[in-house]
Amino acid sequence: MELTLHVWRQDGPDSPGRMEIYKADDVSSDMSFLEMLDVVNERLLEEGKEPIAFDHDCREGICGTCSLMINGVAHGPEEGTTVCQLHMRKFKDGDSIYIEPWRARAFPILRDLVVDRGAFDRIIEAGGYVSVATGNAPDANTIPVNRDESEMAMDAAACIGCGACVASCPNGSAMLFVAAKVAHLGHLPQGQPERQKRVLAMVEQMDKEGFGYCTNHYECEAVCPKEIPRKFIAEMNRDYLKAGMAAE
Amino acid sequence: MKLDAKIPSGPIQEKWDRHRFELKLVNPANKRKYSVIVVGSGLAGGSAAATLGELGYHVDCFCYQDSARRAHSIAAQGGINAAKNYQNDGDSIWRLFYDTVKGGDFRAREANVYRLAQISNAIIDQCVAQGVPFGREYGGLLDNRSFGGAQVSRTFYARGQTGQQLLLGCYQALARQVNTGQVKMHVREEMLDLVLVNGRAVGIVTRNMVTGEIRKWVADAVVLATGGYSNAYYLSTNAKGCNTTAVWRAYKKGAVFANPCYTQIHPTGIPQHGEYQSKLTLMSESLRNDGRVWVPKEVGDKRAPGDIPEGERDYYLERIYPSFGNLAPRDVSSRAAKRMCDEGRGVGPGGRGVYLDFEDAIHRVGIDTVRARYGNLFHMYEKITGEDPYKVPMRIYPAPHYTMGGLWVDYNLMSTIPGLFVIGEANFSDHGANRLGASALMQGLADGYFVIPYTMGDFLAQNGPSGVSLDDPAFAETENEVRARIDRLLNIGGDRTPDNLHIELGKVMWDYCGMSRTKEGLEGALEKIPQIRQEFWENLKVVGNNESLNQTLEKAGRLADFMELSELMCRDALAREESCGGHFREEHQTEDGEAKRNDEDFSHVSVWEFKGEDQAPEMHKEALTFENCKPSIRSYK
Amino acid sequence: MAARKPRMNRLARTLQSSIGSKFLMSVTGILLLLFVIAHMLGNLQVFAGPDQLNAYAAKLQSLGPLLWVVRLGLLAIFVVHIGAAIRVTNSNRAARPVAYVYPGSVQSTFAGRTMMMSGLIVLAFLIYHVLHFTVGTTNPDHFHLVDETGRHDVYSMVVMGFSQWPIALVYVVANILVGVHISHGASSAFQTLGVTHPRLAFLKQGFGPGIATLIVVGNLSMPLACLFGLVQLPA
Q1: Which pLDDT tens digit goes with each residue over B557-591?
Q2: How far is CA B633 from CA A18, B79, B319, B575, B598, in A?
Q3: Which residues in chain B touch residue A144, judged by CB atoms under 8 angstroms apart?
Q4: Which residues numbered 149-208 in C keep a CB inside 8 Å of some CB on A?
Q5: ipTM score
């Protein structure tokens, strides 16, 4: 099939950007979306032009590196799927495809479609862990964990930190990401001692990074490649308010 | 060169304990005077950086990804082994040790493997305490699964995302140290060379992948945890960015390379579907529990699978290995698939694939049971291929997956360069010629959490601070070398792209140094690879400059090192005149086509030393002795 | 973010955070919703005739200072609600300085995306509404009527107002917007307040659109009934 790509190009963090149009001919429906871009890039390179920079790594949907806004939807039209696992059979011959970077103040563009998601790391650094130094741990079966709670923790822990939630949110809010992290540890006994401190620190850092506020559109939930549910946001709201209103 | 593995004396059960007591310590107040560089932030690097930080060392940790959490450990699916014996099914440290040595086809160091088995239990404890949500029983205790190469259930798992969950645990431990300032994390910062002063590793030179800035870093010791080199094949299950540069630079600075030819080819990858393909995806091995593997009996039979009658199908695994059938081990079934395709009986585009058919299973246990067991895998397969495996058989083909070879290290995980430690997949130490499932995660975390913190202390206590500063001329010299190499890559001005050349290299490696190897083929590869390398240096095309995010330049630099490593892999494969584990030499097989080990002549680690750009490397041998596991022949008939 | 005073206590810090702002908006929103419901129920007495409605109005008036407490309280709630809204909107605009060339959405709703707009229009309407029926500036001719017993003739005031189609139209449009606003806001508030119990899930889903529909139907019934002559001036 033949496609027309409208791609955001930007030379560097401080350069102005613009949409550019590329033709992608000879696209096979078996290609992944990123392979389609690889082919376009090989041609650009052969023509002596700079290829389109985009983030990707594992290409099997788990590392969370790939990050493209495709026709206004983070990770494109297939539900529960990262861009690297999106295949061209989801498109039709003659389609126009708009490819843009994640857009948020907290995710500055580095080049073309590559953004800096360091804000997510800083949120985890603020408190998204259990403070247990190596060697301190008791036997793994010392504390039995309710299986449903453990499964719930795993549902939240499945987050790959790709940032699609922020990209898709009309407010550029990171609530689904932070909520998933808070819920992961919040549902396990090992996470209890630092539960209040953790949620306060992580939300404070989230606000500092300049993410928007959640107004419950749930676009994040709709595009999340790991289908993390919105209920974790409600849980975090409650955890945060409880912790914030408790005595110092 | 004398290779001293520094294996402690005494009975194998006591070696590690005794060694830990004998290791010198750095007192807490002095730890803050030392700095350590850790390259890589996967399970090995992340856990090492976090733990060294906790102990009080100043740590700088580097990764090429945009976050420490994205290292390729994240993609491991199945699980992590430990000798907990929670299932009361006869497991023990000794059994895990034996299974691992045997699984590695008796080409690993016994002492290292025993230590790994000992440490395995503490890893699970640590991970649970960190909040890793392992699968549990209804009673709230940890569940286990069984895995290839073992008769006990000792594999801990977190759904199909065990690697991800372990990595997040380790990343969170790392984040905690970043928060205290003990560890400084440098993302999108790629190590391009190692700096030595008086033969000791004292720093690295990196390139900031956003600005192109070349930076120098000094420390008292350097830890490489940069993973494996399966991307030498171009198509592999590794992440696109996985590369050998750090390891290869260390090799060229004097660290010796062990067993480069030991590569693991996983049997159940999704086959290549076109020339444009960028990466191979694995389907869990568990599918072979119910799927039947077959190809048409006739060469060149292009009919749709459903049109091929039962009598014209060859269920070759069941035919050749009647007792193990479709569950023959990884290396054996990978090679059998290759043979079928080489005979011209492969299926799908390009003829490089075999069927994995669930029709019988659907008839036998019903479609709902099959869906319950494999639904998510079928879904993933359909997403990638567009074919519904409930209706047409899956097509699978082996895929390069893991490299057992790596930089040589002693029992302390230190390379032959003092102060340079190598951990995780980047070293060679624990898996011999073949790695068992669910052991890679175990090794990475064992090295990072529980070995390096002790042995690093010993090295620093014995050798003191490096006393070197960035002003040392060695730094400027190395920086100049790095800059010169980048300039050279940017100024070739040819017309072949890095990917185009990498595909050519990968094809040679796959054809001649892949699942099965011959003297003739390897000799041919050793002629072809230098030609491709020459073509690379004469006809490479890189656009853009160094001073910006330039993914083509990144690829070119990594490929330059793969070009050299590939040659060493072939050289090693040629020298190892036997078949063992993942290394199969067609000349060395039994009458019925099975691997034939030669313990008399090859019970050693092949260790390669760099001798100069246009010189052949020199091979050294570290003899392997087996005092506790008697070498036996693996048969799956 | 403004620099924080180190000694600011935890509660103040909490209320100034993103979630805190949403908390304030939710709590005030729910109070306003309760007021809207009570207001509607009171007004629906128009269907019971002049005597009933005027008696109700007189009773409210007789509360004296208490009425002022309620009014000032209501005003304070509005101020907090609007203040939080401004804060949220500003932060959200700042969080995405460059818009997408190709905007898209998967499951967000029109109501959710237009909260600020519907809120502002409703606010303008409220000012008019107060001037119309509470202060009596816009239509003094309706406002100063007195019924047979000497009470303020609220009934006639309402009927005369709503019988004029431009006024009725304003009320119809504004109340539809009130409904749109509530349909998102009411459900959203419970999510923000952290309601997670499965039995209460309805509060976060159907409740908003449901209560909004009831309010729209109730509030529109009055101007429409007057306009179409179903409710008439006392003979």
Answers
A1: 999 999 999 999 999 999 999 999 999 999 999 88
A2: 64, 27, 21, 22, 10
A3: 139-141
A4: 184, 187-188, 190-196, 204
A5: 0.98
